[in-house]
Amino acid sequence: MKNPFGDQQVPGSYHNLQERMYKKVSANVNEQILEIIVKSYENALNEENIVLTRPERKRLLSQITKLVFEDLFKKLDGGSSSA
Fold it and tell me: How far is 66 from 74, CA to CA, in rounded Å?
């Protein structure tokens, strides 16, 4: 629902709620998720005794993170019965 006095969303609208919830959730969760992924990634590299240069480590972490999120989104969109 649009505000008749301008382009701002009406405070009680769904868009406003979504934006407020996103700000609250993402501020707290983003760092936690990244920390979990990095820790798991480092543990996996250590278990496999893999030695990479810093740029290789960073590139592979980026690729793995993308795959983890793609898998997560598939589970969210696919209607996983465990949710």
Answer: 12
Please, are residues 9 and 40 in contact by the beta-carbon 8 Å criterion? no
Determine contact, residues 38/45, Cβ cutoff 8 Å: no
CA distance 35 to 60: 16
Where residue 28 falls among pLDDT bands split at 50, 70, 90?
Answer: confident
Q: How far apart are CA 11 and CA 29, in angstroms?
A: 24
Cite the beta strand spans of 1-83 per DSSP E. none
Q: What distance in Å separates the CA atoms of residue 49 and residue 43, rounded to the nearest whole number?
A: 10
pTM, rounded to two decimals:
0.66
